[in-house]
């Protein structure tokens, strides 16, 4: 008997009919002889409604109370799903975060999971019940309600699968699986049958919205066999797995993009030790995450520091730096929001050279100027003008022949 | 320093503006130097919305899961109220039922309170916080979410006041207090400054909707000084208190009515020991509560048994009894839904006679036929044709001069 964790997002439980459909999908696995744990998000639109109520009360609020309000959506969804499953003849029981004991730290609104207890759930599974667990929510050591951040239900599902040592964690979504790039942008994009954890991790953090980054980190850490598949159509989806020899033969597996960043340059700072700390210290204090960083030092001994920040933090970061300009001795702080980050990703890069050249040539051929470059072992990211995003993604998808099955590609 | 528990119903927190208004009322008591605990219901309409979702899933459901769904409304309300209070400058913290440890039995949907822990709340109060507690909800020994039934937030407030030994429990509502009868039916109805627990208890169970019956039972048991007052207008409301000599001088304090019952007669049963058990046993098994009972035995040794049941259970009760007719040896089972129960209430009845005569004369004078009578130490109830309800209430209100201040009444 296998143990399967299923996760359904808000659109899958948007109406009572869809909730009944999710119930049927859980029951199908149960009838096939598996133990089934289902995690769900709030009914689509509900979390936004609750956030709007909080925002209607003023410019700021206690994060603790925010979590109390927004976690109510998942509470409604699990009760309804448990009722739907039972009305189709299979015993079920719902669990809130605190009932599982889904222990997190106290970082309200973006809490990290510390421990998930499995005893109560195992007892229910052994008794033949389908267990329904609220996604997105947990509790901290002091007994406060916490939430895991947007997309947190993915992480809930993977954490449950890890704690229960599940044989599979099926993440149901509105697409068939993970694609070589966004199929809405590139119709030729191919669904991948398998993807390495590391590749998925890069894709998630580089802008692909299919899974929350943290859920992939957890899956990798605990080797959880996660499958991403459609709740609307039959299909085997995409399996997240450890990398193997076949994957390493492929140069590039996917192209990701993000329009969620902005670029800031601090111009003409006298170059000295501690310069970066002087610039990034105040940003860290203001809770601004800095991503790509580029530093040029001119012959005159002056440095320009360029970096990207989340678009939502752009204005805050600009204000912070303009206040610091004088103490930094900088000449100017400039910023630009109309940028995009485009990345090629593949574990094959570890053992193959020439990916960067091929990437830069493809972009240069159509006159796309590269503003910044950042690399890791298995990805290359470039920052370009936002207006070229779609063109760049298509060019790169073609250049690495991602529309062809991996074995048929010329360059590997 | 006094400790005050305030309770606000769903209409008082229906919009963000009203939530801010509740926040201001809590803060006013806080600024006056009191420790303040606020209990709230779900935003008006929310509980109905959640119940409709459950009902949309089928003809029946697990009461456990029902409680998970419907208790989400209060969760949203307490988070929003805590945020509203803090945005007005006073620290606040919200508590869900399980966070207080609001322990109940496991009778989902109508759970009874077993114990309320006060340690965490006292700590927050001592730290200068206003504490906001979810009404209507608790948890049982096994850690399941429970709810206290419609109107349960009144009971939550009184239970909190009892546990915290509060100096006052202020129940805010949309009327000025407790009236001598329904002011919508009798414009001359007077607001009472004080009412004895026992009188309020009879009023609540005889149909007055101002407080949940259980909340009054609790208030009486723990001598909680409950005040019922308007959240919309200034005023001292009505204080629930133990009876004293002044109250005992008054013959009748109030007139209550209910249209929520139906009448059933089992006709022509051979009279024998165990007859009542044979009739009421099956009804108890079907969870039908029987209220007033009347038994006539004719000269021929046949008995007619007449009793009232909640209107919502009428059809179920009729079916149960028709199935039992043969084994009971009864000739017929008849029923009637168009009835009303009208009651006069007053602790003064304990020491005064003549109330029944005055009541029956008042009704007879206008030709209102009495179908059943039931009495206790401090109330007399009659069942009449439903169409006479309003007339009967007005006649009795006049007959006992309830439109005059208690001291000015001729009959006492």
The third-level CATH topology of the domain at 3-173 in chain A is Carbamate kinase
CATH-wise, what's the superfamily of the domain at 3-173 in chain A? Answer: Acetylglutamate kinase-like
Strand order of the main beta sheet of chain A, please?
3-6-2-1-9-11-12-10
Shape of chain A: globular
Count of runs of 4 or more consecutive helical residues of chain A: 14
Low-confidence stretches of chain A: none
Task: Just give the CATH class of the domain at 3-173 in chain A.
Answer: Alpha Beta
Instruction: Give a short account of the largest sheet of chain A.
Output: 8 strands, mixed
Radius of gyration of chain A, CA atoms, in whole angstroms: 23 Å
Oligomer: homodimer
Structural class based on helices, strands and sheet pairing of chain A: alpha/beta
Mean pLDDT level of chain A: 93
Largest interface in this structure: A-B, 39 and 39 residues
Label this structure with key terms:
14 helices; alpha/beta; 412 residues; homodimer; globular; 8-stranded mixed β-sheet; 4-stranded antiparallel β-sheet
Topology:
The structure is a homodimer of 412-residue chains.
Chain A: E1 3-8, H1 16-31, E2 35-40, H2 46-55, H3 63-70, H4 72-87, E3 92-95, H5 97-100, E4 102-104, E5 113-116, H6 119-126, E6 130-134, E7 137-139, E8 145-147, H7 152-163, E9 168-173, E10 194-196, H8 197-205, H9 213-222, E11 226-230, E12 238-241, H10 245-248, E13 254-258, E14 261-270, H11 275-285, E15 293-297, E16 302-310, H12 314-328, E17 332-336, E18 339-345, H13 355-365, E19 372-376, E20 379-385, H14 389-399
Parallel strand pairs in A: 1-2, 1-9, 2-6, 3-6, 9-11, 10-12
Antiparallel strand pairs in A: 4-5, 7-8, 11-12, 13-18, 14-16, 14-17, 15-16, 18-20, 19-20
């Amino acid at each position: 008997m296998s143990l399967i964790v299923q996760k359904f997002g808000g659109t899958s439980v948007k109406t009572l009919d869809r909730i009944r459909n999710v119930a049927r999908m859980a029951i199908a696995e149960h009838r096939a002889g598996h133990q089934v744990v289902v995690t769900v998000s709030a009914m689509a639109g509900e979390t936004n409604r609750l956030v709007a109520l909080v925002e209607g009360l003023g410019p700021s609020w206690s994060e603790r109370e925010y979590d109390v309000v927004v976690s109510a959506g998942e509470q409604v969804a699990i009760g309804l799903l448990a009722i739907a499953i039972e009305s189709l003849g299979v015993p079920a029981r719902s669990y809130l975060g605190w009932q599982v004991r889904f222990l997190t730290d106290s970082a309200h609104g973006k809490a990290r999971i510390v421990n998930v207890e499995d005893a109560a759930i195992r007892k229910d599974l052994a008794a033949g019940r389908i267990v329904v667990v609220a996604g997105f929510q947990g509790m901290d050591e002091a007994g406060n309600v916490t939430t895991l951040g947007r997309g947190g239900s993915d992480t809930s599902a993977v954490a449950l699968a890890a704690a229960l040592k599940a044989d599979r964690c099926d993440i149901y979504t509105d697409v068939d699986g993970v694609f070589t790039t966004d199929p809405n942008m590139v119709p030729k994009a191919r669904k991948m049958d398998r993807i390495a954890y590391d590749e998925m991790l890069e894709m998630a953090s580089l802008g692909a919205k299919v899974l929350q980054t943290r859920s992939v980190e957890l899956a990798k850490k605990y080797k959880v066999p996660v499958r991403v598949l459609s709740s609307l159509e039959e299909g085997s989806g995409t399996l997240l797995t450890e990398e193997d020899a076949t994957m390493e033969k492929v140069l590039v597996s996917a192209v990701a993009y993000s329009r969620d960043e902005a670029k800031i340059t601090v111009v003409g700072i006298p170059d000295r030790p501690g310069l970066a700390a002087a610039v990034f210290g105040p940003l860290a204090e203001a809770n601004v995450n800095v991503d790509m960083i580029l530093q040029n030092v001119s012959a005159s001994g002056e440095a320009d520091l360029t970096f990207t920040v989340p678009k939502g933090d752009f204005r805050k970061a600009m204000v912070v730096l303009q206040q610091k300009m004088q103490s930094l001795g900088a000449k100017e702080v400039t910023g630009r929001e109309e940028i995009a980050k485009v990345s090629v990703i593949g574990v094959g890069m570890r053992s193959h050279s020439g990916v960067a050249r091929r990437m830069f040539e493809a972009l240069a051929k159509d006159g796309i100027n590269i503003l910044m470059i950042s690399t890791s072992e298995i990805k290359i990211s470039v920052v370009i003008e936002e207006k070229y995003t779609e063109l760049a993604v298509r060019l790169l998808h073609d250049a690495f022949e991602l529309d062809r099955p991996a074995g048929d590609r010329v360059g590997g």
